[in-house]
Amino acid sequence: MSLQDRIRHCLQNDVLDLFQCQGDLFVQVPRDRIVQCLEKLRDEPGLEFDFLVDVVGVDNSALHEKEIKAREKALAKEKEKAEESGETGVENEPVVLEVPPRFDVIYLLLSLKSNERLAVKVKVPEEDPEVDTVTTIWRAADWPEREIFDFLGIRFRGHHNLKRLMMWEGFGSYPLRKDYPLQGKGEERHLDYDE
Amino acid sequence: MGLQAYSGPGWLLTKAEQIINWGRSRSPWPLPYGTACCGIEMMCALAATYDMARFGAERPSFSPRQADVLIEAGTITKKMVPVLRRIYDQMAEPKWVIAMGACACSGGVFRTYSVQQGIDDVIPVDIYVPGCPPRPESLLYALLKLMDKIQQDHPLYKQRADLAETLGVER
């Protein structure tokens, strides 16, 4: 059985998407099922993804904005074309373009038994940026999850020490979000002997 | 400075200020504070090939209490600012600061939210050394410039002012 088939067989209905990108295999799973899915992938004989390489967060907002602009342009062009050809009967329904969830959290797995790699992806919406922690499965997820919290503001439910990792305590923003200016919002740090 | 030593025990005629400055400028013990690639060039300047000890920077002092010159070589992130300030405050007077490299002078290429745009916002700087990173010769030149600066100092004026303030008299 190919790796794709084995993963489908293991995760069954939890596979929302399974695709190859730049030579890496990605599987998208529901956000609230991430812990169970990773446990299954770790324990299933024949898969045994027992090593967590890294956890990364992605802010897709700039990409989504670009895509939506392109789609709006295409729609406008279509409409123009329809008007030119004199098709007056076309119903002008206002098209609502759906924005996909803003953030991704990607778990990079490696099987030390078969040397196969897999990326597990969950989509995280901006309004409720929360994912269950996987530190219960791999303690190695501790700092990567803190890093994602620090830079993107995604909270990990159940994490035992969810504090900022790179930036200092009291730094008010999430600097790797695409709407954060590169030069910062004037955050400064001073030495205060009274603290 | 007048010196007479070719007959008898010899004598020395000088001003206290001059001899204090002479002593200070010939023993600027550095506190190496390397936070980035400039630190490598600083190590090179301290090591045998360039041998900064020739100019009296004899002993790299890793304790701020025994150091005279803070050589800040590298990027200072904003998270590091309190540490730098505390180290500077721990140094005993008289003290001088060399800001080595583009990052220490101005933030360099890192015009971002996490990097301090020049350490002179945090501590006073005496000598700026441009370069990314500067060659060891540049650091040696900065040290020579600092020695010139120390020699133009008036260490006793400040003492006099302090004394006048303590006694409550007009200067």
The assigned structural class of chain B equals: alpha/beta
Shape of chain B: globular
> How far is the first residue's CA from the last residue's CA of chain A?
62 Å
- Parts with pLDDT < 50 across at least 5 consecutive residues of chain A: none
Structural class of chain A: alpha/beta
How many helices of chain B? The count is 6
Can you describe this structure?
The complex is a heterodimer of chains A (195) and B (171). Chain A is α/β, with parallel strands linked by helices. Chain A has a domain at 61-99. In chain A, 28% of the residues lie in helices and 21% in strands. Chain A has 4 helices and 7 strands, in the order αββαβαβββαβ. In chain A, the strands form 2 sheets. A 5-stranded mixed sheet of chain A has the order 1-2-5-4-3. In chain A, a hairpin with a 2-residue loop joins β1 (17-21) and β2 (24-28). The longest helix of chain A is centred in the middle third of the chain and has 24 residues, at 61-84. The model of chain A has no long low-confidence stretch (mean pLDDT 89). The model of chain B has no long low-confidence stretch (mean pLDDT 89). Chain B is built from 6 helices and 6 strands, in the order ββαβαβαβαβαα. Chain B has a single domain (29-152), classed as Rossmann fold (3-Layer(aba) Sandwich). In chain B, 37% of the residues lie in helices and 14% in strands. In chain B, α1 runs antiparallel to α5 (136-151). In chain B, the strands form 2 sheets. A 4-stranded parallel sheet of chain B has the order 3-4-5-6. Chain B has a two-stranded antiparallel sheet with strand order 1-2. In chain B, β5 (96-100), α4 and β6 (127-129) form a beta-alpha-beta unit. Chain B has helices spanning 16-25, 38-46, 81-90, 101-106, 136-151, 155-167; strands spanning 2-4, 11-13, 30-34, 69-73, 96-100, 127-129. Chain B has 171 residues and is α/β, with parallel strands linked by helices. The longest helix of chain B is centred in the last third of the chain and has 16 residues, at 136-151. The interface between A and B is medium-sized, with 17 and 11 residues.
